[in-house]
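cron nightly-structures :: item 1 of 1
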Amino acid sequence: MRNRARPEAFVEKRLSGSGGLLLSMRPVSHGLFLAALCAASQIYSAPLASAQAAPHMKAVSRSFDPLTAPATHRLLPGKIVFSMLVTPDLPRAETFYSQLFGWGFRPVGNGKTQRIEIMLGSQPIGTVVAHRLDDPRHDVPFWTPFLSTSDTATVARVTRKQGGKVLFGPKQMEGLGEALIVADPQHGVYGALSAQAGDPVDPQSSEVAAIPALNNWAWATLLSPEPKAAAGFYQLLFNYKIVASPEEERTGHYMLMSQDRERASVNKLPDGIDQKDTARWIQFIQVQSSADTARKAETLGGKIIVPVHLDRDGAKIAILADPGGAVFGLIEPQKDDLSEGVAP
């Protein structure tokens, strides 16, 4: 079976020189991140009598749905299993993503902080947290990937030892598992999650519980000022097998593999990116048609940052920003891969 299409060549060749992308990919300050997480953590404290839910949300006390049902209690360390969007306008984000990808949403928490869980059918795939931008000139909404781990405490300890920062946790998130959010030594922000019910099985798995690939997170790329060092850092934490591109000395491209599957790539920041010392993640959603989805995103208020383009594997890739400015990618694999990746 051929490996999933990878957007690294597209990212490397096409991101440089895009002024819109530079703005949208501006690194988020740790202060904003901490503020958002502190607000989110209130969800798991005792409800306050004075709490007022947002007008479009009822005051409820609901935990996250587990990542697997029935529970498997099987973890796939290194796999990206969940994602978080922080944005000041939750209703706008909900409308955009529901119309673009058919995602469903359900409120979680006690109503003190606006937060919703993202559902692909009955499968939880992420969360959206509402938080205002303290300085819109320097902060933009952002997506953060969560990597599976069996030991968030060790991830936190090793991250600190290697020069990174722990921004949140480890903290038990009711229904979801134990979560941690950190900045790696190059300031790339990501999450680690030990899912209490276990991780979703991989698409194309022979197990009947395999979830659909379409409209789900399918890939992630870390753009880094020092890709070799970054790959080593993530290998230390998640026991990845690192596969370097034959031209890695020139391209700075590394593949991160676990369970014999390609999970993500690390690539050198392209020329033209500001704040060259700061890494940042881009996540990709698998779609039936990158061109059609990109056009639809524009009609919904999104922006095409990098137009649809063929990757080295024949996949069609695009990079977009939602109406608030949060960056994400689209990936349309070759047709034979696409047909294999959809669960019946």
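cron nightly-structures :: done
Residues 8-41+62-340 form a domain with the 2,3-Dihydroxybiphenyl 1,2-Dioxygenase; domain 1 fold (CATH 3.10.180.10).
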